[in-house]
Inverse folding.
């Protein structure tokens, strides 16, 4: 029996796949994530052995799990692009047109550069119809309603990659039959492409009719669109590309995180190279937190924001509401490449309070208070920390724009004696931004719970 299992990694919107034939007992995994237990569990569920691990390209937004998965299952070979590849670890090279027979189905590798020079996609055929693919695993070259961005390797290679992407889309994908199912490497929310659609798969025919990246009559028009439409490059993407090219460390289990009593936690928090991440909600963080802590709440998207905001060599101290959630929070964090943990606060903030240790507070303004302060000449500077696209679609009148992903560098040029209030779409990123500012010595800073959603729900005006 043929098996195809998509695995969605929340927070980074990454899609990996297990494909198998239960008759031959062989399975392949395409683009495994860092925490690889899920693939072993699926293989056991279907009674197959993972024999092949395929990488479509050198990933930028998460740490690849290929080496960890190969070490864990002990039966699989890693297959890497053999075309324009820059991998620094062992794996079998795959050439354009190379075929892999699994019994009931066949995978055929095709070189599809543009997002990266070495990028591969894999056509899926039934054994009885070896020249008639019914699906394609597109990696980061073609998405639902979008396409891979060609600018992650820097300005010097953007034009060359944009040209390659155009040829990949128009000379390869658009020549496939309309019924071919598209299985992409990312869903909505990933910064690897602009405005990726919500659905986890599509068809070539549907993309032909609706995908704006496939609608340009010539390359010049395409290039202008694809470069201008790309979202900001997340700060950690170039670092993760280096990690994945060199070969990520093999992780046979999640790193140990020691539980630290409050006084020991406070001592470690003062050590050089240690960063405190408070994973509680925006309201809980505002009510009281450890001095210098950055608020990145424990939701799947924390994977992207921990990667965006902190260096890989920083040792992370965690504040978590419930100690039973430590493993899940850690799982989200390691996907961004962070695996150095200094500990977590045993007993959470309740233990900290009981120990009589000092609390810091982050003021929070409702949208009604924000509106009132804007109108009374208080001198409040309102910072919109959303993406440029969100800002341009409408923002609080009189606000200034400072994307939270850029604040690490831009914050040094801000005047610390000004009074600031940060907002985003819901308050999540606003609290990241405000807590970062507070940790850098900004005393008069507030965050806005509910943020833009609450502002518009209250019927307040906007400008664009």
């Amino acid at each position: 029996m043929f098996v195809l299992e998509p695995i969605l990694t929340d927070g980074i919107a990454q899609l990996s796949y297990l494909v198998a034939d239960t008759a031959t007992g062989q399975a392949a995994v395409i683009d495994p994530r860092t925490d690889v237990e899920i693939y072993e569990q699926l293989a056991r569920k279907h009674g197959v052995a993972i024999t092949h691990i395929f990488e479509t390209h050198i990933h930028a937004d998460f740490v690849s799990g290929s080496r960890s998965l190969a070490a864990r299952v002990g039966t699989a070979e890693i297959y890497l692009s053999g075309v324009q590849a820059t991998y620094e670890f062992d794996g079998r090279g795959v050439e354009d047109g190379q075929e892999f027979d699994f019994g009931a189905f066949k995978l055929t590798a095709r070189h599809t550069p543009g997002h990266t020079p070495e990028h591969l996609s894999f056509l899926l055929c039934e054994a009885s119809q070896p020249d008639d693919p019914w699906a394609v695993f597109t990696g980061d070259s073609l998405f639902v309603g979008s396409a891979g961005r060609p600018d992650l390797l820097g300005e010097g290679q953007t034009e060359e990659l944009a040209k390659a992407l155009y040829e990949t889309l128009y000379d390869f994908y658009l020549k496939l039959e309309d019924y071919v199912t598209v299985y992409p490497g990312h869903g909505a929310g990933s910064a690897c492409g602009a405005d990726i659609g919500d659905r986890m798969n599509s068809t070539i025919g549907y993309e032909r009719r609706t995908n704006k990246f496939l609608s340009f009559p010539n390359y010049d028009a395409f290039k202008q669109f694809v470069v201008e439409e790309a979202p900001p490059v997340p700060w950690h993407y170039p670092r993760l590309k280096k990690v994945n090219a060199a070969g990520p460390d093999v992780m046979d289990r999640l790193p140990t995180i020691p539980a630290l009593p409050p006084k020991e936690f406070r001592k470690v928090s003062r050590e050089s190279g240690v960063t405190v991440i408070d994973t509680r909600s925006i309201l809980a963080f505002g009510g009281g937190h450890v001095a210098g802590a950055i608020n990145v709440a424990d939701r799947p998207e924390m994977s992207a924001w921990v990667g965006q905001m902190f260096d890989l060599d920083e040792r992370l101290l965690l504040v978590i509401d419930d100690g039973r959630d430590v493993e899940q929070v850690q799982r989200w964090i390691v996907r961004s490449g962070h695996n150095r943990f200094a500990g977590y606060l045993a007993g959470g903030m309740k233990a900290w309070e009981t120990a009589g240790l000092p609390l810091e507070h982050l003021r929070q303004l409702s949208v009604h208070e924000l509106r009132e302060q804007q109108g009374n000449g208080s001198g409040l500077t309102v910072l919109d920390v959303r993406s440029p696209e969100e800002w341009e679609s409408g923002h609080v009148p009189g606000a200034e724009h400072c994307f939270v992903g850029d604040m690490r560098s831009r914050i040094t040029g801000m005047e610390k004696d000004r009074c600031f209030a940060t907002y985003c779409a819901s308050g999540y990123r606003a609290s990241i931004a405000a807590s970062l500012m507070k940790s850098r010595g900004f005393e008069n800073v507030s965050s806005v719970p509910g943020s833009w959603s609450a502002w518009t729900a209250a019927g307040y005006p906007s400008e664009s």
Summary: Residues 155-171 form the longest helix (17 residues). The chain has a mean pLDDT of 94. The first strand starts at residue 2 and ends at 9.
